Amino acid sequence: MTDHNHIDQYISAQDIQEMEQGYRANLINCLSGPRAVFLIGTADKDGNSNLAIFNSIIHLGADPPLLGMLSRPDSVERHTLENIRDTGFYTINSIHREILAAAHQCSARYLRTDSEFIKTGLSAEYRPGFHAPYVAASKLRIGMKFLEEKRIEQNQTILIIGQIEYLYLPEGLIDADGNASIFNIEPVVSCGLSTYGLASEHAKLPYAKP
Ligand SMILES: Cc1cc2nc3c(=O)[nH]c(=O)nc-3n(C[C@H](O)[C@H](O)[C@H](O)COP(=O)(O)O)c2cc1C
User: Fold this and answer.
1) Which of 6, 59, 158, 160 is deepest in the core (most CB within 10 A)?
2) What does the alpha-carbon distance between residue 141 and residue 131 come to, in Å, rounded to a whole number?
3) Whose CA is nearest to atom 20 of ligand 1?
4) Atom 15, ligand 1: which residue's CA is nearest?
5) Is this model's pTM higher than 0.90 or not?
6) Which helix (H) or strand (E) holds 147?
7) Which of 116, 42, 53 is nearest to 83 (CA)?
8) Is the pLDDT of residue 75 over 80?
9) What is the mean pLDDT of residues 139-154?
């Protein structure tokens, strides 16, 4: 069996540069390890819904409550990004094992006029006064208001910054200190763009002091 703890492969910056584009994209995307995947729900100005899978959701700060996510460059059609810019709202929805296949299918390049909700059979849920659709099956659902975007000059990717407007999650998930046991909803993580895993709780440690 291969000993994966033994470091015996060296890849230089030049090797990376010379890699075939798709190979390099896969490799580099895997390096930051397992990351939670989410479905991003949006609707265009006419109300046509859209759903896309993202694994770049990051905590940006709690006051105000901000989440960030990275969009690929807008050199081609990006329906999620365009809908967020046009309407100012989007939803972030968790993925569990039962909806993984449908969620992954949302990464396919559908036409602007095709809704991934319809194509994959995932049901959309609308809440009064909120433009963007939620994924009805998701256990954690977050309604977001778009605040600003920042272009990463190195590669033209776009950091989308939004503020939490609504938060829906199962009763009993939040403890007395405010920690939410997200492990209990069995979130799916991805390593890169095609390999998925399940995250489970391993340890709970007290606040570290010097
Ligand atoms: C596991 C996985 C994670 C992804 N994460 C992102 C991401 O963080 N940002 C992004 O722009 N695209 C990401 N994608 C690609 C989008 O899902 C894909 O480009 C999709 O077609 C976008 O749909 P849209 O044009 O409807 O927004 C990911 C794809 C997969 C399979």
Assistant:
1) 160
2) 14
3) 107
4) 107
5) yes
6) strand 141-151
7) 42
8) yes
9) 98
